[in-house]
Design a protein that fits this description.
mainly alpha; Hydantoin permease; 15 helices; 77% helix; 0% strand; globular; disordered N terminus
Length: 445
């Protein structure tokens, strides 16, 4: 009994000695970095599949669910636990049974791995688009190719993967990625608004892309795929604990949780507003022909300089975002394999090489976005927070099985599960269709 008390005191001391670096603005910027990613440029395409009625409604519902489940999660985790566990998986391991934890762990790291592949694909597409636009406007020879663009991005990530642990570099990365993500989002939004102003009309319809432009089957799959794309836009939950670690510790850890909660809610509200503006104005500008990416697609061909700035901003953002999302996976591998510098150099290089190779097999960023969103949203944004909340409240006799709140939470979780399954099926269907015409290792575009 004495040993147990001593251990508990030691844990309390360890918790008290932990002082997260950063401030509320850093946590907010970190969340913005995770939320306002390049996926925001795909929301016009997603809105085009769903239409004026369901497009904004789906985005709003995902926002409400994200905010709600976070409040449940924050309420269920004590201040000591939040301070003691610095990753999402460590909290899961302490709260859930072994089988659920192992399943969640596999899905969690697959999701992070998938994000790294998707970011590599999108970055290479932006690099390719930059070179293509220069060739188009100059009339010169077009030499850049997709494979080389992937290699360039991969080499950059191999370098940053080794030096990202530097605290100053991490803070600079968070700031730069937040600024660049906001920059290209605003450029995409501004160009869409300008196009609507010039044409003087809002394109699109209440039900989205029409039958005839696509087949009935394609309409169904695209609708499900669009839900996955929107789900991806709200997938920051998987690095939630790491984000909160950037907040300065105030007078108490409970106050830190409140501070983190405010940062999360404010950030989700802000990004939802940006999502709706980008998605709706992009759809208004292009209607059924809304590109998968407002900046790198064929929607705009001028102003040339502004578009190039947006493309460069996307690449810079994704360089930092790749590291932000990969760090939990890096820590996991480091704990399981080795913390020696040579070993870390080797396996981080191998990791980047594998994600680069896998990105060459992906037809487009949009194909991976829907699947990653479907794979990660339900388990990490809904199921696990709800399960942890119910488990903790049952211990305290604050919620009973089959009570109204218990039933409501189960309905919410099950509904989101069905939506995620449908989104995954739609994304896979779109991926399979694109594979019919895609040549993975084609060197010329």
């Amino acid at each position: 009994m004495g040993d147990q008390t001593a251990n508990q005191n030691q844990v309390s001391n360890d918790v008290g000695n932990r002082k997260p670096t950063g401030a509320l603005w850093a946590a907010t910027a970190h969340i913005v970095t995770a939320l306002i990613g390049s996926g925001v440029l795909s929301l016009a395409w997603a809105t085009a599949q769903l239409g004026w009625i369901f497009g904004p409604i789906v985005m709003l519902l995902f926002s409400l669910v994200t905010c709600y489940t976070f409040t449940l999660f924050a309420d269920a985790i004590s201040s000591e636990e939040r301070a003691a566990y610095d990753t999402y998986m460590k909290i899961f391991e302490s709260k859930l049974d072994r089988i659920k934890f192992k399943i969640g762990e596999v899905v969690y790291y697959i999701s992070l791995f998938g994000v790294a592949i998707g970011y590599t694909t999108e970055s290479s597409a932006c690099l390719n688009a930059i070179q293509w636009s220069k060739w188009f406007h100059s009339g010169g020879d077009y030499h850049m190719n997709r494979i080389l663009c992937v290699v360039i991005f991969g080499v950059i990530q191999m370098f940053f993967s080794q030096i990202y642990e530097c605290k100053i570099l991490r803070r600079i990365t968070v700031f730069v990625t937040a600024v660049t993500s906001f920059a290209y989002s605003m450029i995409g939004l501004g160009l869409s608004v300008a196009k609507v102003a010039v044409t003087g009309k809002f394109m699109g319809s209440s039900t989205g892309i029409s039958i005839g432009t696509v087949t009935e089957t394609q309409k169904i799959w695209r609708t499900f795929h669009a839900v996955g794309v929107i789900a991806y836009a709200y997938s920051y939950f998987i690095i939630l604990i790491e984000i909160h670690g950037s907040i300065n510790s105030p007078t108490s850890e409970r106050e830190t949780l409140k501070k983190a909660s405010r940062a999360s809610v404010i950030s989700v509200v802000l990004t939802t507003l940006i999502y709706m503006l980008c998605g709706c104005f992009g759809y208004a500008a292009f209607g059924d022909l809304s590109p998968e990416n407002l900046v790198t697609g064929l929607g705009f061909d001028k102003p040339f300089l502004l578009l190039e700035i947006a493309k460069v901003a996307i690449v810079i953002h994704l360089i930092g975002a790749y590291q932000v999302y990969s760090q939990p996976l890096f820590k996991f591998i480091e704990n399981e394999v080795s913390q020696q510098k040579l070993a870390r150099l080797v396996w981080k290089t191998i990791f980047v090489a594998i994600t680069s190779f896998m990105s060459m097999l992906l037809p487009s960023f949009n194909d991976g976005v829907g699947l990653i969103g479907a794979l990660g949203f339900w388990p990490f944004t809904v199921y696990f927070p709800v399960e942890i909340y119910i488990k903790e409240k049952e211990k305290k006799k604050e919620i009973e099985k089959w009570s109204k709140k218990w039933i409501w939470l189960q309905i919410l979780s099950f509904t989101c599960f069905i939506i995620s399954i449908a989104a995954a099926i739609g994304s896979i269907a779109g991926f399979v269709l694109n594979l019919k015409t895609f040549k993975p290792f084609k060197f010329a575009n």
